[in-house]
Amino acid sequence: MPTDAQIAGGHKANLNNPNTSKESKDNSQKILDNEFNGGDVPKASDTKDKNPGNVAGGLKATMKNPNVSDEAKKSAEERLNNM
To answer: Which intervals carry biased composition (Basic and acidic residues) (predicted)?
Structure first.
């Protein structure tokens, strides 16, 4: 079941899609205004705790990625050590 953030995101995407009709965009704007406070809803990640194992895995991957700056690697290492 989609969250409010996902539903609002779909309507926001519709508003920015050049291939959708004006009628469709008007409907999406109406729904955002009436049901989602103009689209101002909490993000999906704001309402759930992050899995610490996944966070640690992402930080470890950042530290080994050759395309990541030294500064980002150092930041990832510090965050990992503080977990």
So the answer is: 70-83
User: What is the rounded distance in angstroms from the CA atom of residue 48 to the CA atom of residue 54?
Assistant: 14
Digit-coded pLDDT (tens) for 19-45: 999 999 999 999 999 988 887 777 655
For residue 68, report the phi and psi dihedrals to the nearest 5 degrees: -100, 140
Instruction: Using alpha carbons only, give the angle 10, 58, 6 rounded to the nearest 5 degrees.
Output: 10
What pLDDT is stored for residue 39 in this prediction?
75
**What is the C-alpha separation between 8 and 2, in angstroms, rounded?**
10
The helix, strand and coil proportions of the chain, stated in percent and rounded to the nearest 5, come to 70, 0, 30
Task: Give this prediction's pTM.
Answer: 0.51
Nearest to 63 by CA among 49, 80, 83, 77: 77
